[in-house]
Amino acid sequence: MTTGDRFTVRGKRVIVVGAARSGVAAAELLVRRGAAVTLTDLRPQIADEARLRNAGVTLELGEHRESTLRDADLIVLSPGVPSRQPAIDAARLAGVPIVGELELAARWLRGRIVAITGTKGKSTTTTLVGRMLEEGGCRVLVGGNIGHALSAQVDESTDDTIHVIETSSFQLETAETFAPWIAVLLNFSPDHLDRHATVEEYAAAKSRIFEHQDADGWAVLNADDPATLHMASAARSQRLLFSLRGNVPDGVVVSGNAIVRRAAGVEQPLVPLASIKLLGPHLVADVLAAAAVAWLAGVKPDAMTRAVEGFTGLEHALEPVVECGGVRFVNDSKATNVEAARRAIESFGPGLVVIMGGRFKGGDLHALTAPLQERQATVVAIGEARPLLHETLAASVAVRDADDMGGAVRTAFGLASPGSVVVLAPACASFDMFADYAERGRVFKQEAMRLAAEWNGAREQ
User: Fold this and answer.
1) Residue 42 CA neighbour count, 13 Å, CB half
2) pLDDT value of position 194
């Protein structure tokens, strides 16, 4: 499906599997590029049916028909669709090419790509990189696993565009030619083991971010996380390390009161630590990574600093919500795995109350025992993972149950003392109780603010 070196789908039968945000964007892009497109989804109804049909997309809903997939010239998978299932396997055996939405869109991009992955911190770093580059005068499009799907940005892509792309393991596992100019691996810990068969398979998917880079590319790696260095060991690209601990002779590090570029014994100040307005020390590591990318892109320190000063964080990522009776409520609904929950817990002091639970994705919950004990913390357990949280933590940490988010917020407030924090750090996916982590976070915030309004109203009477 190439014309010379140019990828084309004109006149081809292309099947897009999965009608979430990325699949819809891919289907619309493919129609614009001249393909005969069918979009298939297991759901009997989807939100964008009328718009897609008007655009010329054929819909097959309620099942993935093996015959449809087997007769395609190309199959494009949405990130949320596992690549191993009977209808897709049958098409693969029939010789049908199968790519992911990220791979599809990247083949048509112009300009340069900055791709960011990791178990935790992708969205914060991606957003901050975009802001730093914009402050530095670059033409930037931010998307991928955050904001707009990459397929929705292809028509805006120009030779001078820098595409800053958040990339998940689900997107990277189907990458074939994807070759970022700068590839960032923030950290690595077990996650998504409900989708990936093993930790090794998850790591292999993440490592694909480096696979097609050449010697002109850059790998930005976390020197404080040995796993990231190992995962990039086969990369042909150049390396730039970042370190929160500051223990590398060449890299972007914290030194004194600033983030600096250290090289050959000389330290160039990039961003004052005082300009960072984010909760949690692990978020400073995300700023380090963003500064490393911006430095490679030629952004001046004053532009980096302006971007950091204007960035107060993302919704659902250690997001301050409200204070009630001296108790602060913080929303970290994006902490959907054990490592992210651990980092959230370690951001606060004694007397912490953690709302935790949902649909468990794998990992070792025992890793939370020590940080919870150190803070004399209490866990309020919700969702499917309640029995597992009791089994894993209750011997060392007080664990209470709640049936819904409203009950969890009120139970947590009753357990908290003035001066302490209630944090939503689930360590689990949200799909047992909510549409996604964002809905879970919004409900948490609504319940916390409702409680605060009632509390303040009662005090005024």
Assistant:
1) 6
2) 65
Please name the residue that has the structure tokens 């929705």. Answer: 152
Is the distance from CB of 219 to CB of 237 less than 8 angstroms?
yes
Cβ neighbours of residue 121 closer than 8 Å, sequence gap 6 or more:
186, 187, 282, 283, 285, 286, 289
Fold equal for 12-96 and 105-309: no
Lowest mean pLDDT among 165-179, 367-381, 408-422: 165-179
pLDDT band at 200 (very low <50, low <70, confident <90, very high): confident
pLDDT of residue 1: 65
Q: What is the pLDDT of residue 251?
A: 98
Q: What value does the mean pLDDT take over residues 37-54? A: 94
pLDDT at 4: 35
Distance of CA 99 to the CA centre of its chain: 21
DSSP annotation string for 235-246: --SEEEEEESS-
**CA proximity to 118, closest of 226, 281, 228:** 228
Domain boundaries, the chain: 12-96, 105-309, 319-460
Compute the distance between CA of residue 297 and CA of residue 314 in angstroms, rounded to an integer.
23
Averaged confidence pLDDT in the chain = 93
Domain 12-96 adopts which CATH fold? Rossmann fold (3.40.50)
3-class SS at 435?
Answer: coil
Structure tokens at 303: 């532009």
Average pLDDT over residues 30-59: 95
**pLDDT-above-70 percentage for the chain:** 96
Q: Phi and psi for 38 in degrees, rounded to 5?
A: -120, 130
Contact 203, 191 (CB under 8 A): no
Residue closest to 345 by CA, chosen among 405, 297, 394, 279 = 279
Report pTM: 0.85
DSSP classification of residue 263: E
Supply 414's token pair. Answer: 């009753």
Q: Which pLDDT tens digit goes with each residue over 148-161?
A: 999 999 999 999 99
Indicate the DSSP class of residue 421. E
| Average pLDDT of the residues in 22-36 | 97
Burial class (CB in 10 A: 0-12, 13-18, 19+), 399: buried
How confident is residue 247, by pLDDT bands cut at 50, 70 and 90? confident
Q: How far apart are CA 237 and CA 153, in angstroms?
A: 26
Catalytic residues: 122, 145, 192
Record the tokens describing residue 124, joined without a space: 């914060």
| Burial class of 19 by CB neighbour count within 10 A (0 to 12, 13 to 18, 19+) | buried
Overall CATH class of domain 105-309: alpha beta
- Minimal CA–CA distance to 235: which of 255, 260, 254, 216? 216
Q: What is 319-460's CATH number, 3.30.420.40, 3.40.1280.10, 3.90.190.20, 3.40.50.1950?
A: 3.90.190.20
